[in-house]
């Protein structure tokens, strides 16, 4: 239950950060982003201020975190099944 609550809080915090960033920054001609499908990151970017390198680093960090949570979930599930 706690892990679900943490997940919702992280998603909510992400929405708040995106909204705050869009309100405080000046419009620019560049665009970029990261899409995570499972543990596989997909990066995209265009323009001089797309920060593609920063998105690559962010994608790698998010991928490592996602894989760590997946492995933690598998290990916890195995230990829970053994105890029953």
Automatic annotation (TrEMBL):
Query: Sorted alphabetically, which InterPro entries does this protein's record hold?
Result: DUF131 (IPR002849)
| Keyword vocabulary terms for this entry | Membrane, Transmembrane, Transmembrane helix
What's the protein called, per UniProt?
A: DUF131 domain-containing protein
| Domain of life where this protein originates | Archaea
Q: Which organism is it from?
A: Sulfuracidifex metallicus DSM 6482 = JCM 9184
Pfam (any one): DUF131
| Parts of the chain that traverse the membrane | 57-77
């Amino acid at each position: 239950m706690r892990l679900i609550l943490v997940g919702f809080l992280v998603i909510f915090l992400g929405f708040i950060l995106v909204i705050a960033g869009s309100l405080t920054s000046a419009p620019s001609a560049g665009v970029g982003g990261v899409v995570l499908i499972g543990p596989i990151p997909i990066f995209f970017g265009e323009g001089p201020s797309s920060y593609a390198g920063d998105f690559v680093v962010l994608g790698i960090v998010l991928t490592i975190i996602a894989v760590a949570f997946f492995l933690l979930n598998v290990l916890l599930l195995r230990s829970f099944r053994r105890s029953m």
